[in-house]
Every structure is written in C-alpha cells, then in structure tokens.
Amino acid sequence: MSEALRVRGLTVSVGGLEVVRGVSFGLERGGRTGLIGESGSGKTLTALAIMGLLADGLTARGEVRLGEEDLMRLPERRLCRLRGDRLAMVFQEPMTALNPVMRIGDQVAEPFRVHRGLSRREAHARGLELLERVRIQDAQSKLGAYPHQLSGGQRQRVMIAIAMACSPEVLLADEPTTALDVTVQAQVLDLLSRLVDEERCTLLLITHDLPVVSQLCDRVLVMYGGRIVEAGPAGEVFGRPLHPYTGGLIETIPPLDEELPARRFRAIPGVVPGAGEFPAGCPFRNRCARADERCVEMPPLTGDGHQAACWHPL
Amino acid sequence: MSVRRPVSPTLVAGAVLVGAVVAVALASLLWVPRDPAHVSVPDRFLGPGQDGYLLGSDELGRDELSLLMAGARNTLLVGVVTVVIAIAAGVPAGGLAALRRGPVEEATMRASDVLLAFPALLLALLFAAVFRPGTVTAMAAIGIAFVPVFARLVRGAGLQVMEQDYVTAARTYGSGSLWLLRRHLLPNVAPVVIVQSAVAFAIAILAEAALSYLGLGTPPPTPSWGRMLSESQSYLAQAPLLALWPGLCIALTVLGFNLLGDGLRDLLDPRLVERVGPP
Prior knowledge:
- In chain A, helix 6 (152-164) runs parallel beside helix 7 (182-199).
- In chain A, the strands form two sheets. A seven-stranded mixed beta sheet of chain A has the order 6-7-8-3-9-10-11, sandwiched between helices. A four-stranded antiparallel beta sheet of chain A has the order 2-1-4-5, covered by helices on one side.
- Chain A has helices spanning 43-51, 76-82, 104-115, 120-133, 139-142, 152-164, 182-199, 210-216, 234-239, 244-251, and strands at residues 3-14, 17-28, 32-36, 58-66, 69-70, 87-90, 170-174, 202-207, 219-224, 227-233, 307-308.
- Chain A has ten helices and eleven strands.
- Chain B has helices at residues 9-30, 64-100, 102-116, 120-130, 135-162, 165-172, 177-213, 225-232, 241-268.
- Chain B is elongated, with a radius of gyration of 22 Å.
- The relative contact order of chain B is 0.17.
- The chains are: A alpha/beta, B mainly alpha.
- At the A-B interface, helix 2, helix 3 and helix 6 of A face helix 6 and helix 7 of B.
C-alpha cells in the first residue's frame, strides 16, 4: 500500500532545544493512525510542523512528503494552496478555533472560497450541505449564527466540516474530543470516523485517550520526550506492548471488570520532565524500572511491523 | 431568532446628541433664520429673543442661531474628513504590522512614533505655516496626527487576534495573509476602531475649534464654533452668552460622540448577543 504522508527525521527546536527529535513515520493511504503520548511529548508540535504552522521562534527540519512534494521545502504560497485542500487539521479547542465575529455560514464557506474560488452564494450552498453532512440540526438557521451561539459539540462538528470541506487526502486531528464531554465525544468520533471513510481520507488522530485509539485506529505511534518510542498495528501494541512506557500507559487504564476499591489506580512513577530536562539517551530511562547503563545511548526504533525503541523490551 | 440585549441608555443619549447635530447641520443647508453672513451693525449685542434674534446677535449684529446652525456643518465636515484620513491610512498600516511582523512592523511603528512625537496642534500649526491656513489644512493636519493612534491601536489589537486559535485554524484551511487580514483580523479589531473613531471625532472637533480659536482653522466668513468662541472673548463682560452658545455646542457634540462610541462598542460586539439553542 502506498503512503499518503511520509515524515522523515522531523526535528522541531526552540532556541537550540530540540522538543521533537528525529521523528519518522508514514501514514498509509486510507489508514487511521493514532499518535499517543502524554502532554508535552511533542504530539501537537509534530502536527503543526507537518502543517508548516509552527509558532514564531520554533523551527523545524527534516522531510514531510505529501505525495511528490516535500512540504518543508515548499514556499509559503504553495503551502497555503495545499492546506485545507490536500492536508487539513482539526484542533482540540472548538471554543476558540472559530472566529467569534464571523457567522458560521461564512466560516464553513471559507475553504470553498479560498481553494475553489466559489462565489459567496455558491460557497454558502456548499457550506449548508457540509453542515448537514456533519449532522448539525437545523443547519439552515445555524448558518446565520455566531460561534458563541453553538454548543461545544456543534462547534467541533463545524470545525470538522471546515476541515473536510475540500476532501483532503490527509486529516490531522489534534485531540478533537478532549474538550467535549463524554457523550458528545462518542458522537463526534463517530462522525469523524464516518467522514474519513466516506472521503477515503488518511487520518492521524492525536490523543492521550488510549481507548479511543484502540477503537478507531489501525496503527499506533507512541511518543515520549519528543521521540517515537513504539509503533505498530493497534492490536499488537495494545495487546503486547514492547516499550516499558507503552506498557505503563496501558496499565494506567483501570479495568472495568474489577471492583473499584480493589486496587489503586496505577500510575507511571515520576512525572514527565519539562522540555530540555529529559535524560540523554532513552528519554524514559529515569522513570523506567528496566533501565540500566546501556540506556544512556538512545536505542534505535527497530522491529518488523511492530517496532520499539528500547534495549530491554517487555 | 437571536435576542439582542436592550439598547443601552448611553447609546441612546449619544445617538440623540449626535443625531441632533447632524439634523441641525442638514437643516442649515435648507433653512436658517437669517443669513449667517449678514452684518447689521444696529443690531449688535441683542439679547436672546430680542427683535426676532432667537439666541441674540453678536458683535457684528449677525444672528447667533444661524451662525451656530451653519457652524455645525463645518464641525461635522472636519470630524468626518479627519477620521476618514486617519482610518484610511492607520488601519491598513497597523493591520499589516500585526500580520507581517518583522521589518514591516518595525518601520510602521517607528514612523508612527515620529508622528506621535508631534502634538496634533503643533502639526496643524506647522501645516498652517507651510501651506495656507484654512479648513483643508486643518483637517489634513489633524487627520495625519491621528494616523499613528489608529495604526498602534490596530496593531496592538491585531497582535492579539493573530495569537488566537481561529487564526491558526484559518491557516490550516489555506488562508493567505491578505485573506487573514480582511476576513479575520480587521473584523475582530472593528469594535476598537469604531470606539476610537468616535473618540477621535470628538478630539478632532475640539482641535478644529482650538485652531479656529487661534485663527488658523476655518477662515471667515464660514461660520465655525471655535472662531465664534474666540471672537466672543473680547466681549465676555458685555455679552457672556456669546461665549456660552458655541461652547455649549462644542461640549455637547463632543459628549455625544463619546457616548455614541461607548454605546456602539457594546452593541457591535456579537459576543454579547444572547445564546440560542441548547448549550
């Protein structure tokens, strides 16, 4: 199967400090990949670097191939034409990701106007179709509403509609449901999943919610300290994790078949170090029970299909 | 379907005052009690109501009410033109500075620092010395003096807007810089620009009055509230009301624009519209 997106040696640095270090992965066309890891592991920065939208002061190097083109080497004008058309992104915070002084109808119409050059009226008609596709009730009247008049779930649906407007090849969804409550989460994930299927779009789902990944994704990438520490088919990674960090993450999920007071919630000992405070070599070694002097050297990501970067895999 | 908040009393008061000035200015185009330029020495210093002079007459026997009505025209003209100059130059400059950052921002902001170093009145005096003193010179000078105010305001508010998630989101679907400026940055800074416009309008009216008072604004015979105030000064002991009328007009107009600015800010902010639909 061909790859829709290939990332090679992506490094993001801020003032000499590398916060994403040599990340490489590929997204199979039409596949759904989950990128998991704790806060501060570099998930969002990886996504923003792929989009070419890092904030001022952050620099990225490496290679991001979308089809034939290396996004890192494209001039901004070409990137603008790509974004939203072939490569789209959904953000974590639907509350702030919509322009507060612009009507919903104008906002869903924007991608059509930017990329397809449609007139306001045509773009609005397409926008209405989109809102109906993302199952916004009473879509016609919502066209004239402002973002604050919509609930969080509705807003995230609008964001998804905007992202999917031009049927992108690759969709990066950065914790699309984290800010929503649980019942709405399920609906939004359902919607995302359906649209991705319908459009035959390649999905990179960034989250720290393991059950969501195991439900939705066929491949998993586990990030820690700015590096990918484990990668493989979702079933294998969750069923038989190789990296002690992945193992720890899975352990933290309380089992449903156990009476709650029977044991304490498991946690990975220690806390995620701040940026720049990760130990040299394996970034997890100061929290890892299996670490020894060999871990001073960074282990390579090895394995066939199911890969892990660990000298002492589980 | 959306329910708007009840209109604030501030807005109503501002709108009434400004509306009154506009109405008087328009009315003066069609009708004034007497020709404001008509000098009639025997009718000097008449009190209000005497001989059909509703607000009395000035030192040359001109009808005070007619002068005030015609003066409103001049006042509004000065306000509108200066604010238009200031917005036309200042808003794009500030917007681009916030959008492009780097050298563009540096250049714009240093240029506005230089302009800000000149007080509006000093700039107007300079213009009057270099060009011919008059309404056009005064309006140009006051307008240019306001450009950095708008540029800085829009840059400041614009920088905040550029940090917002919705701008990053807009970039993810491929908005270029000019699209961002037009669709996202400017609409989001519009409320502050509107409020600032009303304040600038008020200051412009005051500045023009001050220039006319100094004899560098509107030249006679065009009636101007500032010049009326200045001319009445010599006769303050004799006819104090001649200073009161134009002073009152200036004060109420300035107050009206200030109130209007505040009221509009509340009204135009769609975030204050009541929610509809389930939360």
